[in-house]
């Protein structure tokens, strides 16, 4: 909701609902902290990659980076996810090469295709974590789930959008926050996507790769080409801005809601110009355009973050 980031005055009408949301979520946290509600402890370490706000902040590139980095450290990582936007008849769902975004959600499918690591989806993360551990993963990455206290965690990483930050600073539905900013004091690291990074934050930069074909034939569009652009992510303007920075001339910009599916008829209306989409949209491609390409991105984090994470893992291993 754009009003969250523009301090729209009418949002004060939602203040009573935000108070109620805060009371309910606070009570739930309290029940877990007192042990009145039991949290599941996985047999292997759990790293949560989450955020305070609704909408995309760059968690998926962070999860992909984390999978690849953990492998260099000798781990066999796996990923669990709620699988938002997907629907399966059976949970927990273990992804394979035939799993679709309609079944598992777009982000888990993207992570599985990019990394090849085991990915398990389910609304109950404890069940997904147990299933993943049984598959041989010796460390679990929870894609989102910072507020899912039914699953114990060993390391918490919070990703924040460097431009939008925390919006108006209010809880849902008056603002974008799932929990107050006080929550950041208890996490292991704050990863700032795009900057500028604040004190104590680690800057994550996303570097675009080469365009990859979805249905495109021949040579990919080059800088200076007129193209259409489509993005169904948490903040589509970030994708459009990236394309313009790369030198593309955007004839039409189609912004969809996060996880929203495309329909072929909608794409057919765009005409014959090349269509550029995100990798997240590519995994749920419905057809309908003959010259479509997706732009992959790769996360880069500072060595200081790697050292911090390495030390935290050593502490966990020493504790065992």
UniProtKB/TrEMBL annotation:
Keywords: ATP-binding, Kinase, Lipid A biosynthesis, Lipid biosynthesis, Lipid metabolism, Membrane, Nucleotide-binding, Transferase, Transmembrane, Transmembrane helix
Assigned protein family: Belongs to the LpxK family.
Organism from which the protein derives: Oceanimonas baumannii
Residues that, per the record, bind ATP: 53-60
Any Pfam family the entry gives: LpxK
GO CC terms, sorted: plasma membrane
UniProt xrefs under SUPFAM superfamilies: P-loop containing nucleoside triphosphate hydrolases
Transmembrane segments: 12-31
GO biological process: one example: lipid A biosynthetic process
EC code: 2.7.1.130
InterPro entries from the UniProt entry: LpxK, P-loop_NTPase
Functional pathway: Glycolipid biosynthesis; lipid IV(A) biosynthesis; lipid IV(A) from (3R)-3-hydroxytetradecanoyl-[acyl-carrier-protein] and UDP-N-acetyl-alpha-D-glucosamine: step 6/6
Reactions performed catalytically: a lipid A disaccharide + ATP = a lipid IVA + ADP + H(+)
Any one Gene Ontology molecular-function term assigned to this protein's record: lipid-A 4'-kinase activity
Lineage: superkingdom: Bacteria
Protein name as catalogued: Tetraacyldisaccharide 4'-kinase
Functional summary from the UniProt entry: Transfers the gamma-phosphate of ATP to the 4'-position of a tetraacyldisaccharide 1-phosphate intermediate (termed DS-1-P) to form tetraacyldisaccharide 1,4'-bis-phosphate (lipid IVA).
């Amino acid at each position: 909701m754009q009003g969250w980031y523009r301090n729209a005055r009418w949002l004060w009408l939602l203040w009573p609902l935000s108070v109620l949301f805060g009371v309910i979520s606070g009570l739930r946290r309290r029940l877990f902290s007192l042990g009145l509600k039991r949290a599941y402890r996985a047999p292997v370490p759990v790293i949560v990659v989450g955020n305070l706000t609704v909408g995309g902040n760059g968690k998926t590139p962070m999860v992909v980076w984390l999978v690849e980095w953990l492998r260099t450290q000798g781990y066999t990582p796996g990923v669990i996810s709620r699988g938002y936007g997907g629907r399966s008849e059976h949970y927990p769902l273990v992804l394979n090469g035939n799993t679709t975004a309609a079944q598992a959600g777009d982000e888990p499918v993207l992570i599985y295709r990019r990394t090849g690591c085991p990915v398990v989806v389910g609304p109950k993360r404890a069940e997904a974590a147990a299933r993943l551990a049984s598959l041989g993963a010796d460390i679990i990455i929870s894609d989102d789930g910072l507020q899912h206290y039914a699953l114990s965690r060993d390391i918490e990483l919070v990703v924040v959008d460097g431009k939008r930050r925390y919006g108006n600073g209010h809880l849902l539905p008056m603002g974008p926050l799932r929990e107050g900013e006080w929550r950041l004091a208890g996490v292991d690291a704050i990863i700032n996507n795009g900057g500028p990074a604040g004190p104590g934050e680690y800057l994550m930069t996303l570097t675009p790769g080469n365009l990859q074909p979805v249905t495109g034939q021949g040579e990919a569009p080059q800088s200076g080409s007129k193209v259409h652009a489509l993005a169904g992510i948490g903040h589509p303007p970030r994708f459009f801005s990236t394309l313009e920075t790369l030198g593309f001339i955007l004839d039409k910009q189609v912004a969809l809601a996060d996880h929203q599916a495309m329909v072929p008829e909608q794409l057919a209306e765009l005409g014959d110009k090349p269509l550029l989409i995100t990798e997240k949209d590519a995994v749920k491609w419905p057809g309908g355009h003959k010259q479509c390409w997706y732009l992959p991105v790769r996360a880069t984090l500072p060595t200081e973050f790697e050292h911090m994470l390495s030390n935290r893992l050593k502490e966990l291993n020493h504790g065992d």
